[in-house]
Known about the structure:
Bound molecules: flavin mononucleotide
Number of domains: 1
Strand content: 5-15%
Radius of gyration: 18 Å
Number of strands: 5
Amino acid sequence: xxxxxxxxxxxDLHHSVSRALTARFADTWAGISDDHVVVRRDLHVDPLPHxxxxxxxxAPRLRTPEEVVPADAEALQKxxxxxLLNADAVVIGxxxxxxxVPSTLKAWIDYVHIGGVTATMGEPVTEPLAGKPVVVxxxxxxxxxxxxPGEAVDHEIPSIVQVLGxxxxxxxxxxxxxxxxxxxLPALHEFAGRAADDLQKASDAxxxxxxxxxxx
Length: 216
Ligand SMILES: Cc1cc2nc3c(=O)[nH]c(=O)nc-3n(C[C@H](O)[C@H](O)[C@H](O)COP(=O)(O)O)c2cc1C
């Protein structure tokens, strides 16, 4: 059963661009065959608690004697890691909040990035997620593409690529859609056409990527 893990983190339950795009991805995935499964986790509606202890950043064998983890936190971490391991592909709705990821998504990342489990921390090499595709949908109010004034302050995509890609060895595919505030902010009205083009491209990319990763 080809399984998609579908994560959202937008705090907007009515007009969210990233939610619409990840839903398009998930619908395309589910439509490929009756066997295609979608596992859904809404990090905004059901937020994870912050890490109760830094010990969760380490595999049990790498913890110091004082690093004791509460059983419920250990169980939650195992659930989240298992969801990731069992998925054939992942789609993440990652709206830009204050130049970075929403704190709800950051909490999920803090749980699943574990030295000696999902990331190599010395010997042996531990990269069970190597090559797993993860499509990251970054919706943002302004513009951060190559050459844009905001390019240098996009602290979202680079940090996700660093953690999920460089450290956890996943195959990160960023899909961005810029100027989502063009219809809301008068100062950005003139960019409404560009915003619409961007959104259409991102929407088309959802269908193409879901088919690509769902049929390989
Ligand atoms: C808390 C918060 C912080 C935001 N910070 C930024 C920002 O740093 N840069 C930006 O371009 N837009 C920012 N925005 C606008 C959102 O990125 C934009 O509305 C985007 O479409 C949100 O994704 P969504 O439509 O999936 O909810 C922010 C919005 C919120 C609610």
